[in-house]
Specification:
Blueprint lengths: L2 H10 L17 H12 L7 H9 L2 H13 L1 H14 L6 H4 L2 H63 L4 H52 L5 H42 L5 H31 L5 H41 L8 H48 L11 H6 L2 H104 L7 H59 L2 E6 L2 E6 L1
Antiparallel strand pairs: 1-2
Helix pairs in contact: 1-2, 1-4, 12-14
């Protein structure tokens, strides 16, 4: 096909080869050469079989993208082809490298490639340095031109100063002024730094004050008993997680790891082994189902009095596990939020999270600024409209100016014409022109006065409009802020009303309950008989509860005393155990010193040998 010679010719351009003709006898060898060159360029090379077949057959879908890519990046490919001529290594079979001469020559060949890499890098660095030198030379020329300009300015200024008296005093005064201005700038920058530092300290103080107030508000309703109760609940939850939940999970993970390790270490099962395991699983499943049915039948035949308690215990255990999972998730989320907060505070110490009050103030200020923005936008729109009117006026005036005849249309008198005109006629013409100018001035005077009055009136109206507009904007901003504040108050009052309504509903329900109890007590008072009244039953239950409470309190006191006693006894036993261990160690050390220890009643004697 004719497309392959074209590709070959284009490939020879960046590789600096001679143009290669592909006659029909070598068309089968052309794809190999083209693939080799594409592999040199490495960015378009692909090893797909379809690509090679398309290249061999000369398909347009393969040839045309190659042509486009080659023609678009010819300069870059020239450099890549130049490097490929020296960096692509000659492929030598491994068995031939065993020859000492060939191996030595190949090592020298690799060393030459490394030297070429180093030389090429140095050449690229020198070329880049040459470009930088050219840039420096250009900068130096520009600086020389600027130096000449500055020297000319200095010479001009010195020439001006030569005619000035007391120039030394003026120069001294200018020098002092410059020093004072520099000192003033330094003081201004120092003052700005001090102001910034003061603002940072104020922000830090405000943040710490806010945190202190929040901590005080948070700890306002807390009591030591509540804190102890919350700590006890947290300790119980952590104890449950550490003693029950985590061991179960660890045991399950350990069993899973054992199963996986057993499966991983075992040889790959055959199909017979898999069939045997499948049959065994089915048999065990049938046995489990039969045992479960027998157990259900046995439970149905006999009355299980502990079934409700067992079911309740299972429900409580399930709830405890769910609460533990939820507690772990909430704790993880809280830790993540604390870490994020610390990261934000560490990244930017000047910023801090806004409180609710500050957020409300920010919203009110934002509303005020949005109102001011709308007002300024309206002013800009009015100015844009006025600019359009003025632009149209300028266009009309330009048209009028073009319509006015130019000076060239009038009669132009030369010096020779002026010499031919008599003086009387010239004086007459001058008088006529002066009279015309005076008449035009007289006719323009009332119009100018009227224009001046209109301008004054316009300035007064504009000033009044500006004042009223400013007043309107300030009042609108104030009203917006007050409306936002009132809306917030209305929302708070509505929330308070809803809370009061819910509290009222609770009180009404309690009142209905009390009324029901009271009516029941009145009916029992009317129908007194052998049955004890509801009041008597309640009093009996209250007395029983009080007795039980007293017994429990007494038992708690006994348990506390017993616990203290046993704790003291335990500490004594621990001390005794430590003392005995110490004595045992002393005896062992004495034995090691080759002595004989004799014990008698109340005495110990060590006999050295």
């Amino acid at each position: 096909p004719p497309a392959r010679p074209i590709v070959g010719w284009i490939l020879t351009v960046p590789t600096y080869y001679k143009t290669v003709a592909f006659p029909s006898s070598t068309w089968d060898e052309a794809p190999t050469a083209i693939l080799r060159d594409l592999w040199w360029f490495s960015q378009y090379y692909t090893s797909e079989v379809g690509f090679r077949q398309g290249l061999v057959q000369g398909e347009k879908a393969v040839i045309h993208p190659i042509l486009e890519w080659l023609l678009r990046s010819t300069d870059d490919l020239k450099k890549r082809a130049y490097l490929a001529r020296f960096l692509v290594k000659v492929e030598i079979p491994v068995e031939m490298l065993g020859d000492p001469e060939i191996g030595t020559a190949y090592e020298q060949y690799e060393q030459l490639i490394d030297e070429f890499k180093t030389t090429h890098k140095e050449l690229a660095a020198l070329q880049a340095r040459g470009m930088s030198a050219q840039e420096l030379r250009t900068d130096i020329d520009a600086m020389e031109n600027e130096k000449q300009i500055v020297n000319k300015k200095i010479e001009r200024a010195s020439r001006k100063l030569e005619v000035v008296e007391n120039k030394e005093s003026y120069l001294e005064a200018a020098r002092g002024l410059r020093l004072e201005r520099e000192r003033q700038k330094e003081l201004a920058s120092q003052r700005a730094n001090e102001v910034d530092l003061l603002q940072e300290l104020q922000q830090t103080s405000a943040r710490l004050t806010q945190q202190l107030s929040e901590l005080r508000a948070a700890s306002k309703g807390t009591t030591p008993e509540g804190l102890v109760r919350s700590l006890e609940e947290e300790v119980k939850m952590n104890e449950y997680i550490a003693t029950e939940k985590l061991p179960k999970e660890i045991e399950a993970k350990r069993k899973e790891v054992e199963i996986l390790s057993r499966v991983a270490n075992a040889p790959p099962p055959s199909q017979e082994t898999l069939d045997h395991l499948r049959r065994q699983i089915e048999r065990v499943s049938q046995e489990v189902s039969e045992l479960a049915q027998r157990g259900l039948a046995a439970k149905e035949g006999a009355e299980d009095n502990l079934a409700p308690y067992r079911q309740q215990a299972q429900i409580m255990a399930r709830r405890k596990e769910e609460m533990a999972d939820e507690f772990a998730q909430v704790k993880a989320r809280l830790d993540a939020m604390h870490q994020e907060l610390q990261a934000r505070e560490g990244s930017n110490t000047s910023e801090r999270p806004l409180s609710e009050k500050e957020y409300k103030e920010y919203l009110s200020k934002l509303k005020v600024r949005s109102t001011l923005y709308k007002a300024k936008k309206a002013q800009i729109s009015a100015l844009v409209a006025e600019a359009g009117v003025l632009a149209r006026t300028i266009d009309v005036l330009n048209q009028y100016q073009e319509a006015i005849p130019s000076v060239d249309t009038f009669e132009v008198l030369t010096d020779s014409d002026l010499d031919t005109i008599p003086k009387d006629e010239m004086m007459q013409r001058i008088n006529i022109i002066n009279n015309q100018i005076t008449a035009h001035k007289a006719s323009m005077t009332p119009k100018l006065q009227e224009l001046r009055a209109c301008r004054e009136k316009y300035n007064e109206v504009l000033e009044e409009y500006t004042d009223r507009k400013r007043t309107y904007d300030s009042k609108a901003a104030t009203l917006e802020a007050s409306i936002a504040k009132l809306e917030q108050e209305v929302k708070e009052m509505m929330k308070e009303e809803e809370a009061n309504q819910s509290q009222t509903a609770i009180y009404e329900a309690k009142t209905d309950i009390i009324k029901t109890i009271l009516s029941r007590a009145e009916e029992e008072a009317k129908n007194t008989g052998d049955k004890p009244s509801f009041k008597t039953l309640l009093e009996a239950k209250i007395s029983e509860s009080e007795k039980l409470n007293g017994l429990l309190r007494q038992e708690q006191q006994e348990v506390r005393v017993e616990t203290e006693r046993k704790t003291l006894q335990r500490s004594l036993w621990i001390n005794l155990e430590a003392l005995l261990k110490c004595k045992e160690q002393c005896i062992e050390s004495e034995k090691q010193n080759a002595g004989i220890l004799k014990r008698a009643k109340g005495t110990e004697t060590l006999v050295l040998q």
